Amino acid sequence: xxxxxxxxxxxxxxxxxxxxxxxxxxxxxxxxxxxxxxxxxxxxxxxxxxxxxxxxxxxxxxxxxxxxxxxxxxxxxxxxxxxxxxxxxxxxxxxxxxxxxxxxxxxxxxxxxxxxxxxxxxxxxxxxxxxxxxxxxxxxxxxxxxxxxxxxxxxxxxxxxxxxxxxxxxxxxxxxxxxxxxxxxxxxxxxxxxxxxxxxxxxxxxxxxxxxxxxxxxxxxxxxxxxxxxxxxxxxxxxxxxxxxxxxxxxxxxxxxxxxxxxxxxxxxxxxxxxxxxxxxxxxxxxxxxxxxxxxxxxxxxxxxxxxxxxxxxxxxxxxxxxxxxxxxxxxxxxxxxxxxxxxxxxxxxxxxxxxxxxxxxxxxxxxxxxxxxxxxxxxxxxxxxxxxxxxxxxxxxxxxxxxxxxxxxxxxxxxxxxxxxxxxxxxxxxxxxxxxxxxxxxxxxxxxxxxxxxxxxxxxxxxxxxxxxxxxxxxxxxxxxxxxxxxxxxx
Length: 492
Known about the structure:
This protein is mainly α. The protein has helices at 3-12, 33-76, 81-97, 104-107, 110-127, 134-159, 165-176, 178-194, 202-224, 237-251, 267-271, 274-303, 308-314, 316-336, 339-359, 363-390, 395-409, 412-416, 429-464. It is globular and about 65 Å long.
């Protein structure tokens, strides 16, 4: 039997376990925690840095419609409130429809998929600078949603091929925290552009400045996104042995065999899994606020009495606070393996912020509340992503669960981007109240999910016996601990 056939067989049965020392898959090597730590650090510096920068650009290209709006886009394209809302909605319509593009990262070489989607959205984001009417902008927002739908959720899925379940949450936090950091730079960059007097309309210049770097980064994506840990050029031969062993311990096969196809019969079970649906509902709740806050925060601040220029600048500090809170909470969730409790905390912080925004009139207090709202909302999203990936027991099911939570969750922006109409100015009481309600509902769902997962783990303990925290405790203790089997336990 050839190595090629072995890999194919394992791909056909993702939940199968290859015995340690199987020469067709490479024997498990022993390594120290220090050696593993150095490998993970290399993955972080080379992968997370690239993915972070690209997602920051993606979020800039997605959200700069809000900055462009108060920089003259509405006047030049003759947009009323309804037409502006449709520009925002169109992006999310295609973002939902194109979610199955996530699975492309498992079917085709990731460096090819990454290059195509990065170049695609970068080109479209840049071409927005030349649009002359509302219809043209609608078409571009449609295409922008297609390409970005394949990137953000796709990278979250791809991370599960490189990191273990006790590591994945913080990496989701690093990746998703690019969004609030992008909002920080969006405010500062828009402040610089809109305070000038260029010959080109300020909103057109904004699209150019933020779109062109993405096109250039497509070349970087082609050369620096590895197709698997074993093909990472920045790892030594010894380090590749370690990542090969990590993959065996993770899913029971070598890393290369995980790319090239998916298991069809693993797609349907996700659709009837209550745990996946609870994650999808949490993601929906978070996205109601997550989608609207970066777009409307400059407008909300402007309606507090600040000038348009100052509103752009003042939107940066709350976003930076959210960036830090997302990193801290996902790190804590990884260390404690208590993701549901962390989600309850982050959702409650966001809910309190929105309640203050809805009920208080003092400008200073309301500005402080934008810190709470931003921190809670932006920290909830990556924690839900980590919880989702942790609690599906095969590569295909993990991919399908990401598709599901985005199909449901990305419908949240349809509500979130429509709850701040101009008629509610200046306090937007109704919009703030709706966002608060969904954040608190997300906290309740997280507690329900935790109870369900505890019950599922108790059934597994009765069937297989208890296991230690690192997933060891029986004969095949070091192999496929993240796929369904005697070692698998749900992360609370």
